[in-house]
Design goal:
This protein is an alpha/beta fold. The chain is built from 7 helices and 8 strands; from the N terminus they run βββαααβαβαααβββ. The longest helix has 17 residues. The two termini are about 30 Å apart.
């Protein structure tokens, strides 16, 4: 029986102190691919105060498909530190902070969880705000909710998108702008297992309530 990964809660709220972070990887599979860039910006009182950024040598060839997206080549990472060297510094940088990122629940955080467990035997338990969910709630008028779509809506420069530090800077500005938008306040049911919100969903057997921290938490209950 697999041991459940211990993680933080996904928050559905704006915060003024946080670390926005982003990864670039060799592909989209958490099991088969690896991290080639980690960047983060620490924010206190809505103002960026410190940056962390590093290329990562994956110890393997970077596929052309990944390079076409993020522009990172084998030559660029040849002299970069390995992930086991970079990760402890990154985890120290984010220690005790709320994490903010775009689509981090499904993509970035699983890469971090796996690497921390395998390389350092550590759990990453930071609470986090996923701006993809926030954008869907705050900007329902947008047809798509990619980071570049949200940035364009707020007239934020998207030059250099898909490099980790540039994406952090873009997302930090988007998060601050979305934090100022009016949001409907409604009482939310809370997951008894992890403390995240429950959301009504439809399945093959009818409606049910599922945890918004899925797949880290798989709690459900009948509607």
């Amino acid at each position: 029986m697999a041991v459940r990964q211990i993680t933080g809660r996904r928050l559905n709220e704006y915060v003024t102190d946080y670390v926005v972070f982003d990864l670039e990887t060799t592909g989209i599979s958490v099991q088969e691919d690896t991290i080639i860039e980690i960047s983060a910006i620490k924010v206190k009182g809505q103002k960026p105060v410190e940056e962390f950024t590093s290329l990562v040598n994956p110890g393997t060839h970077i596929p052309a498909g990944a390079t076409n997206v993020n522009g990172i080549t084998d030559d660029m990472v040849r002299s970069a530190p390995m992930l086991h060297e970079v990760l402890p510094d990154f985890l120290s940088f984010i220690e005790g902070e709320v994490l903010v990122g775009h689509n981090i629940q499904s993509f970035d955080l699983p890469f971090i969880y796996k690497a921390a467990k395998e390389l350092l035997e550590k759990e990453v338990v930071n609470d986090y705000v996923d701006t993809l969910f926030m954008a869907r709630e705050c900007l329902p008028q947008l047809r798509r909710h990619r980071l570049v779509d949200i940035s364009a809506y707020f007239h934020i420069d998207t030059q250099g998108a898909h490099r980790a530090l540039n994406d952090c800077a873009m997302n930090q500005q988007c998060f601050e702008r979305m934090g100022k938008l009016p949001r409907e306040k409604k009482a939310a049911e809370i997951c008894p297992q992890c403390g995240s919100e429950l959301r009504k969903r439809s399945g093959r057997f009818g409606d049910f309530y599922g945890c918004t921290n899925y797949p880290s938490c798989r709690f459900t209950k009948n509607a």
